[in-house]
Known about the structure:
By secondary structure, the protein is of the alpha/beta class. The protein is 33% helix and 12% strand. Helix 2 crosses helix 4 (80-89) and helix 3 packs antiparallel against helix 4 (80-89). It binds the ligand O=c1ccn([C@@H]2O[C@H](COP(=O)(O)O)[C@@H](O)[C@H]2O)c(=O)[nH]1 and magnesium ion. One of its GO terms (biological process) is pyrimidine deoxyribonucleotide catabolic process. GO terms for molecular function: 5'-nucleotidase activity.
Amino acid sequence: MKKPPTQDKTDIMSRRTKQTYDYGQKNLCVLLDLDQVLADFEGHFITKFREKFPDDRFVQLDERKGFYIKDQYEKLDRNLGDKVRAVYIEKGFFLDLPEIKGAIPAAREMAAMDGVDVFICSSPLTEYQNCLSEKFEWVEKHLGPEWLDRIIIAKDKTVINGHILIDDRPYINGSCKSPAWKHIVFTAHHNRHVEGRQRLDNWTDGTWRDIIEDFKKRI
Ligand SMILES: O=c1ccn([C@@H]2O[C@H](COP(=O)(O)O)[C@@H](O)[C@H]2O)c(=O)[nH]1
Ligand SMILES: [Mg+2]
């Protein structure tokens, strides 16, 4: 465990988070996914897809099934896969994602809670050219520049340390077979068929506070 700093309060890491030092207490480390947890990827996708391809078939939100939109559209028509991709790799797509209702005030309140550190943990598209910088811009625009130091970009979230990962992707696999975090599934249309998982359904009914308080007691 890290030793407490001697006197240098300008140490950059101690400014970034309510850092856990070896004072015999521990902060709960919460990892928040970005797309479909803080930012409405699916809703924005449909709007943009219908604008760009008004004559094509599309999948209504309440008919979504499976994590990747592209996979479901390709089942409708195999030519739709490239059109789906064209929508979300376009410049501005990630920057213009609307907020998931209540996510921003909840993230701010969570980060201000005693004994809680919050990070944003997001996977980039492999076609990262617009997506990567726009994820940072989105966080700066919606949460503020002080949150830029809390962004973790990882293709493989299983190797990231933390106590809780709140993420809409129902199955998160990677090279670490027993990740440090407990996965709380953030409910989305595409994952509502998945059973037997601890969930957070929304940011508006206050249940996120109960989850955080419960985990604070367990660490
Ligand atoms: O249908 C799709 C296609 C791509 N994505 C992308 O996957 C990652 C997931 O990111 P998280 O921040 O971990 O949610 C991201 O690059 C999306 O653009 C998707 O979510 N759905
Ligand atoms: Mg997501």
